[in-house]
User: Fold this.
Amino acid sequence: MKDHDNSPLSDYIEYPKDEMLARSEDFLNNIKRRHSVRSFSDREVDRAIIENCIKAAGTAPSGANHQPWHFVAIHSTDMKKQIREQAEMHERGFYEGRAGEEWLDALKDLGTDADKPYLETAPWLIAIFSQKKGGLDINDRNTNYYVHESVGIATGILITALHNAGLVTLTHTPKPMSFLSKICQRGDNERAYMLLIAGYPAEDATVPKHAQIKKPLDDIATFV
Ligand code: IYR
Assistant:
């Protein structure tokens, strides 16, 4: 790569080793408090907070830096109502048979069902779309690469940013999700990837015990 195509890494911060360890511990302790929450308060959350979290998601690495994502931040009562109606309709089909016995068994400790009142209660729903074609310019229609990976990373950063701001989230993937494209009026180039619910937790919010069991390091990592 030509030198003049790069600029110095001027915003890197090197922390002293002990501070680095302390920061890694602090982050771990903080992110351990992230839970998927299924009962939301209707308290309002400023749009500026959601904007910052989406901007944070937009810094994610992506294939060829095409940034193959679009976030629709939904505050509209009418759109939330439509989304709830459609999601519950599909989820009823899922829970009443389409899921199959093994899948329903895997979900039983989470206590989920087809009722999704939080889709209307929470102040914000963020519909995440992946883009088949794109590029740096909004009008580009070049091939996108590693779309699923890229949008997954951006979504992870979004969830982390929302948690860091002091909000709770739920990742929701109604099946099928194509109704989201229609309600959000997204074109053929985009595919619904996930719906994030974001807001304050309800005062009586709970977290399933099952969801709090995280695999120990030895089960998730190998150091060689
Ligand atoms: N989409 C359904 C079912 C569901 C599936 C999985 I995998 C989960 O981890 C949780 C729920 C729902 O939202 O209820």
